[in-house]
């Protein structure tokens, strides 16, 4: 069946409610704005320490004519995730879209990474993503509708030095979304990941500040430049939208071609 020129664009998210973790970060804020521009109302979930930034971003979304609320969350606590998801639905209505975006990295060689550092990176980037998916999935699956997107990384499919826990967590996310996708596809819920290359945010700014590192990285990206937060946000928005209705269990690489080489 093909769609004629009339009717709403399948790239729109009008009337949908989206839940975004790590909402005030470099990529999170771009994702929030892109989803709002596509028509969604947004629950911005971030650490309590990000409250001021969350409130400023809520105002930006409201200025776009959408509803927005800030809900505190720490994705390393399953209870906190459930509370934030419940808050979001109480205040905005049923979630149709969720973006598990919160992430951290501790850049250290494999010979030096300490147990607590390993645990922190895995707790936020893998355990936090799973329990975010589970909390929203428990609401979406019975309703038979929803799109969940997790932030993986090109480093979930190719190596990066000095980030063993991060690389392991991101590889875990790539296969986690496959597992949840096949579980939930018969119930109408899609689960995908996005795999960005290097984008300049708080996560990467110090690392990319070394001119030799930066030149080496840019030299490995076939498009010849770093990505932008908006380019990642557009990939997330596509996967969130009905335009991606046949897409589940995939990791959409937004990597300038890095992993194609
Ligand atoms: N920037 C890049 O180059 C890049 C590349 C590939 C993938 N990613 C991934 O994209 C996602 C966003 O990264 P970013 O570049 O915007 O980083 P960022 O540091 O700018 O933002 C991270 C966000 O996560 C939040 N966060 C951290 N710990 C949390 C916790 N325990 N509970 C809730 N929120 C928490 C922070 O408050 C912040 O808002 C991450 O998953 C990251 O791994 C980033």
Characterise this structure:
- The model has no long low-confidence stretch (mean pLDDT 97).
- This protein has one domain (17-199, 229-253): NAD(P)-binding Rossmann-like Domain (Rossmann fold, 3-Layer(aba) Sandwich).
- Helix 1 (26-37) packs across helix 8.
- It has 8 helices and 7 strands.
- It is 44% helix and 15% strand.
- With 261 residues, the chain is α/β, with parallel strands linked by helices.
- It has a 7-stranded parallel sheet, sandwiched between helices.
- Bound molecules: nicotinamide-adenine-dinucleotide (NAD).
Going by CATH, the homologous superfamily would be: NAD(P)-binding Rossmann-like Domain
Structural class based on helices, strands and sheet pairing: alpha/beta
Question: Mind telling me the CATH class?
Answer: Alpha Beta
What is the H-and-E element order? EHEHEHEHEHEHHHE
Work out the number of β strands.
7
Give the overall silhouette: globular
**Adjacency order of strands in the biggest sheet:** 3-2-1-4-5-6-7
Which parts are unreliable, with pLDDT below 50 for 5 consecutive residues or more?
A: none
End-to-end distance, in Å?
36 Å
- Indicate the CATH topology: Rossmann fold
The amount of helix comes to 40-55%
The major pleated sheet works out as:
7 strands, parallel
